[in-house]
Write a structure and sequence with these properties.
mainly alpha; globular; 30 helices; 631 residues
Length: 631
């Protein structure tokens, strides 16, 4: 009977989440079109709107919360399974169940307090301080609405996990303690460090310990961060009334036009991925570089650089270019490890060459100019592309295991440019518009999204209705998974700030008998180690606010230069085992690829990246010269 009820609830939740996911993706598309409309009205008709900015912000809030349920349903929330993957299936399921229960607690508090916030706003007739005077209970209502959909999916997932546990046999012999050691130890540690929250002096220790315990237990990182922040507010900073800070902080971070750039760039990368722009870029690059030793490897790096200059996404760059490059290189008898390593490393250019999602997040955290942050990655991105290409050429020439392809004729080369012209034009429009001052990064993302839809659906005709529906759903889920981590990290960061943890760290570091540069190098080593264990966006959101305070506010390092050094270091984690996301994206493209093959191929590139970090540290103009030109 219970199984039948769960099956019915599962079907209901699935249909509700499908509709909410589609609506979320449609909201993102609407944002792209109205932002483009604003730019057109401002420059062509000299009639700027007074409603686009506010409407875009509220639609963005809606698209985030509407899609969190389907993100959980499709297992799109980011988590770390480095440790729990070594446990038995039953213990993994127990830990996943505990994670779901703890995540449910955080989301319930967010929903309950969010509903209170919406009702209070309705009672006092609160309106936005803008010409539209929008009743604020409307955007506030997206929090309990989206969380309600998520709660239903939580209930389904929890009971399905319980039923699966009942039907799972023990996979190991021994007494009860031995069979249940991982989840038992996890529960004991949670209780122990949870009690430390009762002492304000020990809260920082409790927070750091709980963070690593929850993350490495496989709990979705967004929920782990939010739960720790919730515990800090409740146990350390004033009890129940302080819990209202959870929805307030969550809403506040999304109530910003800069943040609207995130869903737009995510949807843009999804359109270009499914719209087959990557194949045209790779074909053009191969026509110009295939005659070189390892020419298709060089073409892969070049195509990744151009694609990165459109989307700013690492995984999208690897997935899009890799789908074309991997089969083509393997067909030409390229070494398998070399092929996988070249494609994986090409993706690190995504967060570096502007526009960059990492740089947008940093700008949100620090208030630094996103235009300057974008420009800081331009020269280093070009330098890395050249270094990778030189390595590919030298390695292929010395190994002599790759057949050099005959050069393309000049007619073929220029014909390939004509074929991919509209794709090549995209980064010129996006970056040219930003640095000419015609539009903001958020407007650039909106125009890029509309432009990509037009060229893929009308000019190249690579998009059908089914593919557009796929784009809408994928973009909505990716955006919700990222935005929810941002929200959780900001709730976590509020506690860090209120407890003056950055100031305490600065006081400790100031007393160390080493220079600030030595402290920086040790910190970068720590970031690389973290990058090998966790996803990079979570690392950025957790650590950057603290590191910014230490190195920029306290040690007076240049903020733009420090951001560049941090991002390049973080990118090592994209290809560092065991968690480097690009490694798994490559495996997803070629199911026959063994993890050891991918790691072997990417390690020489990792060494080159680490050497490049040293170059960027001691030759600062590579990061600061171009940002200095834009004032």
């Amino acid at each position: 009977m219970v199984g039948v009820v769960i099956k019915i609830l599962d079907q209901i939740s699935g249909e509700i989440n499908r509709i909410a996911g589609i609506l979320s993706g449609i909201f993102i598309l609407i944002i792209g079109f109205i932002v483009t409309y604003e730019v057109i009205m401002r420059y062509i008709f000299n009639a700027p709107t007074n409603w686009v900015l506010e409407t875009s912000i509220y639609l963005n809030i809606g698209c985030v919360f509407l899609a969190v349920g389907i993100t959980l349903r499709d297992n799109m929330h980011i988590f770390v399974d480095t440790l729990i993957s070594r446990f038995s299936n039953r213990n993994q399921m127990i830990l996943q169940l505990i994670g779901l229960l703890l995540g449910f607690i955080f989301c319930f508090i967010l929903s309950y307090k969010g509903l209170q916030m919406a009702l209070n706003s309705y009672r006092i007739h609160e309106v936005s301080p803008t010409p539209l005077h929008v009743p604020l209970f409307l955007p506030y209502s997206f929090i309990p609405l989206g969380m309600g959909i998520l709660h239903l999916e939580f209930i389904v997932q929890i009971f399905k996990k319980i039923l699966s546990l009942k039907n799972t046999e023990w996979e190991m012999e021994g007494n009860w303690i031995r069979r249940n050691l991982p989840p038992t130890a996890f529960i004991i540690l949670i209780i122990f460090f949870g009690l430390l929250f009762l002492s304000k002096g020990l809260t920082p220790v409790a927070m750091v310990s709980m963070l690593f315990i929850l993350i490495f237990s496989g709990m979705p990182i967004a929920f782990a961060l939010g739960l720790i922040g919730l515990m800090g507010f409740y146990f350390t900073l004033g009890g129940g009334p302080m819990l209202m800070q959870v929805p307030i902080t969550t809403f506040k971070i999304l109530d910003d036009f800069v943040v609207v750039a995130l869903p737009l760039f995510i949807m843009l990368s999804t359109v270009l991925n499914i719209g087959e722009i990557g194949s045209r870029l790779f074909e053009t690059a191969s026509k110009w570089a295939r005659h070189l030793p390892g020419g298709l490897g060089v073409a892969t790096i070049l195509a990744c650089a151009v694609f990165a200059a459109i989307t700013g996404s690492s995984s999208a760059t690897v997935a899009t270019i890799g789908l074309v490059a991997i089969p083509e290189m393997l067909k030409r008898s390229y070494d398998r490890s070399f092929v996988y390593g070249t494609v994986a490393i090409g993706g690190v250019l995504g967060p570096l060459i502007p526009p960059s999602i990492f740089m947008i997040l940093i700008g949100m955290i620090t208030g630094d100019s996103i235009g300057k942050l974008f420009m800081a990655g331009m020269l280093p991105g070009i330098v890395l592309s050249i270094i990778f290409s030189i390595y590919v050429i030298i390695r292929s020439w010395m190994a002599r295991d790759i057949v050099v392809i005959e050069p393309a004729t000049w007619r073929e080369r220029f014909s390939s440019i004509k074929s991919s012209f509209f794709g090549l034009l995209a980064p010129i429009i996006i970056l040219g518009g930003i640095y000419s001052g015609i539009f903001t990064p958020t407007e650039a993302a909106g125009i890029g999204l509309v432009y990509s839809l037009i060229i893929c659906s009308i000019i190249y005709r690579t998009l059908s209705f089914k593919k557009i529906l796929h784009i809408v759903m994928d973009g909505a889920k990716l955006n919700a998974s990222l935005a929810f981590i941002v929200a959780g990290a900001l709730v976590f960061g509020q506690i860090v700030t209120l407890l003056h943890i950055p100031e305490r760290l600065c006081g400790f570091l100031a007393n160390l008998p080493i220079s600030p540069m030595a402290i920086l190098l040790l910190t970068l080593i720590f970031i690389i180690i973290l990058g090998a264990l966790m996803d990079e966006i979570s690392i950025l959101l957790i650590t950057y606010p603290i590191l910014y305070y230490i190195f920029v506010i306290n040690f007076k390092f240049d903020s733009i230069w420090f951001a560049l050094i941090f991002v390049v270091t973080l990118e090592v984690g994209l290809v560092a085992p065991p968690v480097g996301i690009n490694l798994f994206v490559v495996q997803g493209i070629d199911r026959s690829a063994r993890f050891s093959e991918v790691v072997k191929g990417v390690l020489p590139f990792v060494i080159l990246m680490i050497a490049s970090i040293i170059l960027f540290i001691y030759f600062k103009p590579l990061a600061t010269y171009l940002p200095g030109l834009i004032g």
